[in-house]
Amino acid sequence: ATPTSVMVGTGHAAELGVLFRRGEALQALRDIEVVALDKTGTLTEGRPALTDLVLADGFDRAEVLSLVASVEERSEHPIAAAVVAAAKSEGLAVQPVDRFEAVPGFGVEAVVGGRSVAVGADRLMVRLGLDLSAFTAQAERLAAEGKSPLYAAVDGRLAALVVVSDPVKETSAAAVGALHDLGLRVAMVTGDNAATARAVAARLGIDDVFAEVLPEGKVAAVESLRASGKVAFVGDGINDAPALAAADVGLAVGTGTDVAIESADVVLMSGDLNAVVTAISISRATIRNIR
Ligand code: ADP
Ligand code: MG
């Protein structure tokens, strides 16, 4: 690539809200065959809301929601904001907590007013030795609708099924379709549970799904997709940073975290994934002109 043509290409891209942090990425994007996308905050709005709180026998809604929100208040995960907002909208107090611990990819735990409280994915509850079978059928039904089932435990007992839903961005389905039109394979990589991820992927026409991926596992997903060709990864979160760095081209959603932006080759100024299509199209047009 001549320096001038790369300058023209990256300049044109910048006008369309696609910032190349490294000029080499313009050339590298041309050879991409697979686009892997993070789900939460990339394909979805990243602003989940609490949709259901299904209590286990003997538990009170206000009590459980208050305990869970108190723990989540200390977490920076988008799920946490959903739970805290729901508690506040029901006029519930957030209580001080001790011994707060975030277990990446699993959930959060703390002691609230002397009671031990845990909130998170099914695997967190399994780790605590809890039996989830009382909620299995409901969790599966909600996951098939694209909602995310989580669980709350209080004093070592399963207390509630906590369900959040994060709307898919209006623009995501069209962006996936346009990536297919460019001849690319499209994958989703997420820490969310498998049935939820499959439901969202099916709605968007996504080809491959990597779900229940632990934070360190996103790099492994990128490596495994490399079997099909060069991989671009698109993400917004702190936990996407290693995959953004490991991919052949990393594209960060500019509405995301600074850590993601610093690990990426390309920054998309808006949250609209059609910018990925723009970036690849400009790359192909520019590099074609100079070969
Ligand atoms: P993702 O960004 O794809 O959600 P994470 O690794 O951040 O991936 O989280 C994986 C899963 O761990 C979440 O989908 C959720 O089930 C659980 N989890 C993580 N943090 C929390 C939290 N603060 N509250 C409840 N569940 C959580
Ligand atoms: Mg994300």
UniProtKB/TrEMBL annotation:
This is P-type Cu(+) transporter. It is found in: Cell membrane. Belongs to the cation transport ATPase (P-type) (TC 3.A.3) family. Type IB subfamily. It comes from Aureimonas endophytica.
